[in-house]
Amino acid sequence: MSKIIALMPLKANSSRVPGKNFKSLHGKPLFRWMLDKLLICEEIAQVIINTDAQKELEEAGLPDSSKLLIRDRKQELCGDEVSMNLVIQDDVNNSDADIYLMTHTTNPFISLKTLQDAISTFRSSDNADSLFTVNRHQTRFYDKDCGAINHDPDNLIPTQELEPWLEENSCMYIFSRDSFNSTNARIGSAPLMYETNKLESVDIDEPQDWQLAEALAPVFSAE
Q1: Model-level pTM greater than 0.85?
Q2: Left (φ > 0), alpha (ψ -120 to 50) or beta: where does 103 sit?
Q3: Phi and psi for 44 in degrees, rounded to 5?
Q4: Interatomic CA distance for residues 133 and 194, integer angstroms
Q5: Are strands 24-25 and 99-103 parallel, antiparallel or unpaired?
Q6: Structurally, how many domains does the chain consist of?
Q7: What span is annotated as the signal peptide, if there is one (predicted)?
Q8: H helices within the chain, ranges in order?
Q9: Cys-Cys link to 175, which of 36, 179, 202, 209 (CB 3.0-4.6 A)?
Q10: Per-residue confidence (pLDDT) for residue 222, from 0 to 100
Q11: CATH code for the domain of 117
Q12: Backbone torsions φ then ψ of 60, nearest 5 degrees
């Protein structure tokens, strides 16, 4: 069976929601929502947190797990302008796995079942070298000049009959070592798209996202 390492990069600063990675969401630091699921996922052999926030992590409370490895983020990889692919590359170069699963602290509601099903989907594919999660949209889109993009305003068919548009939602990426090394990116040359549940896919980026997460947290914490 192929070895899987989960990568959960985490930075100290957040401009739009200050300190969000360590902020309490329904009684638990945000980063623990995803980390706890990664640690109990039987398919995952190790979880790596590449971070510049070691002190904050310790103060917030880290679980005692032999699967968890904290890596100090190199100074040249710190900052909002650094490509996430460079951070991932540093982890891939310094770990040994057949498959890598990368996710974020800001997607707290991705379920253990979704993690496991995405892994199974990737493993069962004969041709895919990577997988990334998407949101499905079947609605009417316009460009900035009010031009219809994916529909005919003079012929309004039901939205469920429109061609689906799929949005990369950054909730999860799965890729092989060879795939990443060949493209220097988490999405390879032959990827699969994996649709995730709309509520599970909530991404905390803006203050209103945090408000939504607070409303949903009691529901997901009971699962």
Answers
A1: yes
A2: beta
A3: -95, 125
A4: 5
A5: unpaired
A6: 1
A7: none
A8: 30-40, 54-60, 84-93, 112-124, 177-183, 207-221
A9: 179
A10: 65
A11: 3.90.550.10
A12: -75, -25
In terms of residue numbers, what domain contains 202? 4-221
**Tokens read off for 192:** 């699969």
SS (H, E, C) 124-176: HCCCCCEEEEEEEECCCCECCCCCECCCCCCCCCCHHHCCCEEEEEEEEEEEE
pLDDT at residue 7 greater than cutoff 80: yes
Task: Record the tokens describing residue 124, joined without a space.
Answer: 């069962």
Taking residues 171-189, report their average pLDDT: 96
Q: What is the CA angle 67-191-123, rounded to 5?
A: 50
Is the sign of the CA dihedral 210, 212, 215, 216 positive or negative?
negative
How far is residue 195's CA from residue 166's CA, in Å, rounded to a whole number?
A: 8
The token pair that represents 164 in the structure block: 């689906």
Q: Which two tokens stand for residue 150?
A: 């994916």
CA nearest to 105, candidates 23, 43, 197: 23
35-72 pLDDT, tens digit per residue, is 999 999 999 999 999 999 999 999 999 999 999 999 99
Tokens of 17: 């929601």
C-alpha 208: how far from chain center: 19
What's the mean per-residue pLDDT of the chain?
95
Cα dihedral value 200, 201, 206, 208, nearest 10: -40
